[in-house]
Design a protein that fits this description.
Order of helices and strands: EHEEHHEHHEHEHEEH
Number of strands: 8
Strand content: 15-25%
CATH topology: Nucleotidyltransferase, domain 5
Number of helices: 8
CATH class: Alpha Beta
Number of domains: 1
CATH architecture: 2-Layer Sandwich
Helix content: 25-40%
Strand order of the largest sheet: 1-6-5-2-3-4-7-8
Structural class: alpha/beta
Distance between the termini: 44 Å
Oligomer: single chain
């Protein structure tokens, strides 16, 4: 059952806020199982310049695009600890003059964001996040591969690459095996631009359910609540942002210094365009851990 965040009648007649809904549901039934997912992206979907030339990997155009999901066991605890850390940093004399810490900058003073945070602050956030009870799942596309395919499709069919279609496809892939293990599933998704795209996201999540049922012949009766929102409003989105940033540096810069301390939290990384061994891509997990050596081998061919 798919529901938007403002329509919870199938579970409760009370319209509750996202941050309070977990407690209400738990009071209703101690036997109900809950899952809390937080979704964000890394990289961009810029492929071509104005003349149609591929510019992937050039300034302003990342090499890869990723969609990640953090499954957080105790989101209220995570929220409290991140807020406490921010409050402590805001009053620390060493950081008071850092531009990103000024409220008017609307950056670290409001929300942690790995790309914008000062290196010393980023280090403290990463250290805190190692203690969180979370699991991370990420799906990755190589933009160079997509760009070449897009040029061929446009030449043959006259069809342009649709950015939202790429994003929605990764949503379906990353959620395929995550929607059948709880009675109530709450999904907070970082907004893409100004549009919430709730209907499109609901469709992608519903398709992920159908894909799981088709493969495993197991149906799901989970009630799914989807909320497009901002990291400043939901701390779990700040967590997945940091995990995506750490992995992105592995792929974009051959830098694993931020990834390695967190690597046991990454439960599945789907590199969908690395087809050296399997047609559906390379899946990194506990049995096949991701290393820079493996990534270099994949992109050198």
């Amino acid at each position: 059952m798919l529901m938007r965040s403002h329509n919870l009648e199938a579970i409760s007649q009370i319209d509750v806020k996202w941050v309070k809904s977990t407690h209400i549901f738990q009071c209703m039934s101690a036997e109900m199982k809950f899952r809390h997912y937080f979704v964000d992206e890394a990289g961009d979907l810029t492929f071509f310049d104005k003349k149609g030339r591929i510019i992937v990997g050039q300034p302003g155009a990342s090499k890869f695009f990723m969609v990640g999901v953090a499954q957080i066991e105790h989101p209220e605890k995570v929220t409290g600890e991140l807020n406490a850390l921010r409050s402590s940093l805001m009053t620390h004399p060493r950081f008071k003059n850092i531009p990103s810490m000024q409220p008017e900058a609307k950056k670290t003073a409001i929300t942690f964001h790995a790309k914008d945070d000062h290196p010393e602050i980023r280090e403290q956030v990463f250290e805190l996040m190692q203690s969180f009870d979370i699991k991370v799942f990420i799906a990755i596309r190589s933009k160079a591969d997509m760009a070449r395919s897009a040029k061929a499709n446009f030449k043959r069919l006259g069809k342009k690459l649709e950015q939202n279609a790429i994003y929605d496809d990764l949503i379906k892939r990353v959620f395929k095996d995550l929607l059948h293990k709880a009675d109530v599933i709450q999904i907070a998704i970082a907004r893409r631009g100004k549009e919430a795209r709730e209907e499109a996201l609901e469709k992608a999540i519903h398709q992920a359910q159908k894909n799981f049922e088709s493969q495993w012949k197991i149906s799901s009766s989970s009630s799914i609540i989807i909320k497009p929102t901002y990291p400043s409003e939901v701390a779990g989105l700040q967590v997945i942002d940091y995990y995506l940033w750490a992995l992105q540096r592995c792929y974009e810069r051959d830098d694993d210094q931020f990834f390695l301390p967190l690597e046991n939290k990454y439960k599945l990384i789907m590199d969908l365009d690395d087809r050296r061994n399997k047609g559906y891509g390379e899946w990194y997990c506990d049995r096949n851990p991701l290393t820079l050596e493996k990534l270099k081998g994949a992109r050198s061919q």
